[in-house]
Design brief:
The structure holds 2 protein chains of 2 kinds. Chain A is of the alpha+beta class. Chain A is built from 17 helices and 26 strands. In chain A, strands 8, 18, 19, 20, 21, 22, 23, 24, 25 and 26 form a 10-stranded mixed beta sheet that branches. In chain A, a hairpin with a 3-residue loop joins strand 4 and strand 5. Chain A is globular and about 90 Å long. Chain A starts with a strand and ends with a helix. In chain A, 52% of the residues are buried. In chain B, strands 9-15-14-16-17-13-18-19 form an 8-stranded mixed beta sheet, sandwiched between helices. A 7-stranded antiparallel beta sheet of chain B has the order 1-7-4-5-6-3-2, with no helix packed on it. Chain B has a two-stranded antiparallel sheet with strand order 8-10. The N and C termini of chain B lie far apart (76 Å). In chain B, a hairpin with a 2-residue loop joins strand 5 and strand 6. Chain B is of the alpha/beta class. The relative contact order of chain B is 0.12. Classes of the chains: A alpha+beta, B alpha/beta. Chains A and B meet through strand 1, helix 1, helix 4, helix 6 and helix 9 of A and strand 5, helix 6, helix 7 and helix 10 of B.
């Protein structure tokens, strides 16, 4: 009996004098069979991180080896599910242990009893390489699940079952590898969460992920296969922004990771997503979503794993040729989980107690995003949008700073904007997106050159305003010359009428790109027309009195998304109002 | 009871180390029997082979390596549970101290509880009317929410908490069962007395379970106090179908106790010396608010914490804000100006309010009014900043109207007094009266229909008259 618990300190358990385990191997600890992972091996001691509460665990209890690293089960049934950090379905846990989560719940990640109508895509004699599709089945009404050969296998198909209804563990085909071994293929496979799934090739980034959020699509766009960070102190609307993106972005599959966040929030996501109808498919949002919920009071080690579980599921769907967007809320909680475990291992801390390997772990995670050619051919992408919760709302803390190095779009949420209830509270001066250059061609092709010029003009007016506000803060706006007063008025128009977006308004919650462009054009048309008047010495206050500003601000509510032709009515209206004061 | 172990190996602060122990579980409870027969409780915090580290609740003073005998109880710390808890007073470790004898428990539960499965949670939607305008209109409290009060030493957060208890109790539906669980951690004796008196006056004392860990009591007990209290709250809410309001004060003392304890264990410190697991630890307390699907009861938490040096970025308020569903921030300047409750509305927030207000809950215009008040008050701050530089006379008319709005808002809306209990209609009407001080174009958060229905510059006259009189 050498494989027994020796010491216990929170989630860190050690064994003495054993050589039976390998690094990153998944193990079961104690009589309750708590799930754990081997994270350190020395001659004398083997260290395990346990994903569940260790209350009541005693030295001398057995530790069981599984011989495989911590893995997820990949197959039909992942979508519509809600998992904890190590892919245990929370619904099944609730059915097993009631409203409160017990330790040592052993539940299967996928429904093993449900049958799927499977279509076989191979014939005996075909030669299959890793990543090639051998069977398909409708996983949800909108997503076709493609069962691919594990990237580690290849061989000749020697037996194929007829099309029909199968469960995930039924054998549907058999291949013979080059070594002559016969491997049975079912609808599911396993993959270790800490290893990125291999791809054939990485493609350059050239298509945007359209979110329907004006400030993001227009000013700070993100690409399919790109990475973005949403940092913000508490109450600035990180979670709200993530929810909006999950609901509206044009990805095929959404993986939403609630990592160390509030329980009520996850409940809200669950409720909202099952009620929401996806505008593109007319089906419930949950049909294309998988949720991973490891709330802040669930075990900390599973929180650390939840990020990897999520990204592995995302990569699996990418390999089928889907565009996947993954929302991680919040990566800071994950970094804190790293710190907590590192502290228990008595590792030497670097900045603010975070382990020195924090930057490399963050880089590893964000580098798993990309626009790829999967092994089986076609195209697929994984886009990562990570929320960051900076300690003390201070963006100079280690997690924000290190994240900034590895992401290319940065949407900084601002406390002052949030206090004024300007949502989304994305600060247009400190945020940036490096993708605009690469996406320029796409925008030019889809919306014309004017989209790029309009957005550039919008950005420069806002920049000009920021400069003028420095002066206004000191001496008030009354002393500014009229043309500068106009800049201030137009900026207000842009801020309230364009950047501010109401997530609870039926039309404003998602705005198609055409409307975004139209709104910009109307604002700029007004700007130019008003500038003409100002040059004729007509004061800005007189222009404001016409009420036209208010009309333009409200256009976001008054132009329904399906009647964009209504936008044309604004040009004569502006002309008319401005003519009235000449 | 199992074998007793004579003597100790090592004593370090509240920790003692025992050698040659077998069959002891992590987190298990133990009892230390002193030579004079008194007993102290302890908990296993680390095990290494046959060596166990125990944390002694009442402190280690008087303990020597030889004079104690330790026996292990075979289970983690438990709280006796029965409806008879109401009206009783306990110390921080859940032992009765009101002299009314021991608790005859109908069941016992591990004080650490278990995480509530997100799929078994009911999303909170019912609002609790507190009768306080600033909270009801702008930071609405929802049943099942955790909404802390961020305060500073010397401000009247206790008064505010007492008022919420008093008025929420009155405005609750008569047939629903309501009770308060009060946990004091490291507070002064006066504070405990103040709450006792307030509960008595509002007639809820027999529905209050009190846990008192005063500032002079051992810190190790302080770490258990909120957990005992929440075990009691969960029992009353989920087993007995009651609506429980939990008041935890002061979370900063709790966090400091945790830090003291962590450093005595020799753990690697994180920010400001607090242990790296402070977030997870606080979450294990705050996340115990909520509603279980299919159940009748609810646990609503109002933790109170004093921000050291009024600094909201201090680790304790900072991490708390990331876990709780909003915060009520009190402001010292307002407090000094005699405004009660001194709620600083701009940094305050209730995350759950959007789903618990409006048609069917409060009134259809609630959300629009609250957004507009927030946005207008944010502009008041800009106008004030400008006025302090160039003088009020030089301001534009719009800015002047904001200054007036700001003054009236603070005087009539925020400053309410301890005994005034306003209905939600009164509060919203008052909001419209104030918004009518501004010109119609400034109301950019409200749609036309509501403006036509409610906005009327005449409504604002009462303030101008009032102001003229006070001048």
């Amino acid at each position: 009996m050498s494989n027994t618990v020796y010491s216990i300190n929170g989630p860190v358990v050690k064994m003495k004098d054993t050589r039976d385990f390998s690094m990153m191997e998944m193990v079961y600890v104690g009589n309750k069979k708590l799930v754990g992972e081997v994270i350190g091996i020395t001659d004398a001691m083997t260290t395990i991180q346990v994903y569940e509460s260790t209350t009541g665990l005693k030295p001398g209890e057995p530790v069981y080896s599984t011989g495989a690293p911590l893995s997820v089960t990949l197959g039909p049934g992942i979508l519509q599910n809600i998992y904890d950090g190590i892919q245990r379905p929370l619904q099944d846990i609730a059915a097993q242990s009631g409203a409160f989560i017990d330790e040592g719940s052993s539940v299967s990640p996928l429904d093993e009893k449900k049958t799927y109508p499977v279509t076989l895509k191979v014939r005996p004699g075909d030669y299959l390489k890793g990543g090639m599709v051998y069977a398909t089945c409708p996983e949800t009404p909108i997503i076709e699940h493609r069962c691919m050969l594990s990237p580690l296998l290849e061989g000749e198909v020697i037996k194929v079952s007829p099309d029909g209804d199968y469960t995930i563990n039924d054998v549907v085909a058999v291949i013979r590898t080059s070594k002559g071994e016969e491997k049975e293929l079912t609808l599911c496979q396993k993959w270790p969460i800490r290893t990125p799934r291999p791809v054939a090739k990485r493609l350059p980034i050239e298509r945007p992920l359209i979110t329907g959020q004006r400030v993001i699509d227009t000013l700070f766009p993100i690409a399919k296969g790109g990475t973005a960070a949403v940092p913000g102190g508490f109450g600035t609307g990180k979670t709200m922004t993530q929810h909006q993106l999950a609901k509206w972005c044009d990805a095929d599959i959404i993986v939403y990771i609630g990592c160390g966040e509030r329980g009520n929030e996850m409940t809200q996501v669950l409720e909202e997503f099952s009620e929401l109808i996806d505008p593109k498919t007319g089906r419930a949002m949950t049909d294309r979503t998988v949720l991973i919920a490891n709330t802040s009071n669930m075990p900390v080690a599973a929180r650390e794993a939840s990020i990897y579980t999520g990204i592995t599921l995302a990569e699996y769907y990418r390999d089928m040729g889907y565009h996947v967007a993954i929302m991680a809320d919040s990566t800071s909680r994950w970094a804190e989980a790293l710190r907590e475990i590192s502290g228990r291992l008595e590792e030497m801390p670097a900045e603010e107690g975070f382990p020195a390997y924090l930057p490399s772990r963050l880089a590893e995670f964000y580098e798993r995003a990309g626009y790829m050619v999967p092994l089986g051919g076609g195209e697929g992408s994984v886009t990562i949008i990570g929320a960051v919760s900076p300690q003390g709302s201070d963006f100079s803390e280690p997690v924000t700073q290190n994240t900034k190095r590895f992401v290319r779009a940065f949407w900084a949420l601002d406390k002052a904007l949030a206090y004024a209830r300007h949502y989304p509270a994305i600060n247009w001066m400190t945020s940036y997106s490096e993708y605009m250059e690469e996406l320029g061609d796409w925008f030019k092709k889809e919306l014309g050159e004017e989209f790029l010029t309009c957005r550039q003009r919008l950005a420069s007016i806002l920049g000009e305003e920021a400069r003028l506000m420095e002066i206004v803060k000191l001496i008030g706006s009354d002393v500014l010359p009229e043309d500068q007063k106009l800049v201030i008025e137009v900026s207000k128009l842009i801020r309230v009428g364009f950047l501010q977006q109401n997530a609870f308004h039926a039309d404003d919650t998602y705005v198609p790109l055409e409307k975004q462009l139209g709104m910009m054009k109307i604002i700029l048309y007004f700007n130019d027309a008003a500038m003409e008047l100002v040059k004729k010495n007509i004061p800005v206050s007189l222009i404001a009195q016409t009420g036209i500003l208010d009309t333009i601000v409200k256009m976001k509510y008054n132009i329904p998304n399906n009647q964009l032709e209504k936008m044309e009515e604004y040009y004569p209206l502006i002309d008319e109002k401005l003519a009235s004061i000449q | 009871m199992s074998v007793q172990i004579l003597g100790l190996k090592e004593i370090n602060g509240p920790l003692v180390v025992l050698d040659h122990v077998t069959d002891v579980g992590y987190d298990e409870m133990a009892e230390l029997c002193m030579e004079d027969g008194t007993r102290r409780l302890a908990r296993v915090v680390e095990i290494e082979g046959d060596r166990a580290v125990l944390q002694v609740f009442e402190g280690t003073s008087g303990i020597s390596l030889k004079n104690v005998r330790t026996s292990f109880q075979g289970h983690p710390m438990e709280m006796p549970l029965t409806t008879e808890l109401m009206g009783r007073i306990f110390n921080g470790a859940g032992t009765p101290i009101d002299g009314l004898g021991p608790i005859l428990a109908s069941e016992r539960a591990d004080i650490n509880g278990k995480p509530l499965n997100p799929v078994s949670r009911e999303y909170p939607r019912n609002y609790i009317r507190t009768g306080i305008s600033s909270i009801d209109a702008l930071i609405t409290l929802i049943r099942g929410q955790k909404l802390p009060i961020f305060s500073g030493s010397g401000m009247n957060h206790n008064k505010l908490a007492a008022q919420i208890v008093k008025q929420a109790q009155i405005s609750g539906d008569g047939d629903e069962k309501f009770a308060v669980v009060f946990a004091a951690m490291g507070v002064k004796n006066d504070v405990a007395d103040y709450f006792k008196k307030q509960f008595e006056e509002s007639g809820v004392l027999e529905r209050v379970v009190m846990f008192l860990n005063l500032s002079s009591d051992p810190i190790v007990e302080r770490i258990l106090t909120p957990r005992c209290a929440l075990a009691a709250a969960e029992y009353l809410a989920y087993e007995k179908g009651m609506h429980i309001l939990v008041i935890l004060t002061d979370m900063t003392s709790y966090a400091e106790a945790l830090r003291e304890f962590s450093s005595s264990k020799g753990e690697i410190p994180g920010r400001k010396g607090y242990p790296g697991y402070l977030y997870s630890d606080l979450a294990s307390i705050y996340e115990r608010a909520g509603i279980v699907k299919g159940g009748k009861g609810s646990v609503t938490q109002i933790p109170i914490l004093t921000m050291p040096n009024d600094d909201i970025t201090h680790p304790v308020p900072d991490l708390t804000g990331y876990i709780t569903e909003g915060q009520i921030v009190l402001d010292r300047t307002m407090d000094q100006n005699g405004i009660y409750p001194p709620v600083s509305i701009l940094p305050s927030l209730s995350r759950l309010m959007k789903d618990g207000i409006g048609e069917g809950y409060t009134r259809a215009d609630h959300s629009a009014v609250s957004n507009q008040l927030f946005s207008a008050y944010a502009k008041v701050q800009d106008a004030r900043a400008l006025a302090s530089v160039i003088g009020e006379e030089e301001l534009s008319d719009t800015d002047k109207s904001y200054l007036e709005f700001g003054r009236m808002f603070e005087q009539y809306f925020l400053d309410q007094g301890f005994s005034e209990n306003r209905t939600i209609e009164q509060t919203l009407e008052l909001g419209w009266d104030l918004l009518s001080l501004l010109s119609r174009e400034e109301l950019d958060r409200i749609d036309e229909m509501m403006i036509t229905q409610f906005y009327n510059p005449q409504r604002a006259k009462r303030f101008r008259r009032g102001a003229a009189q006070t001048r």
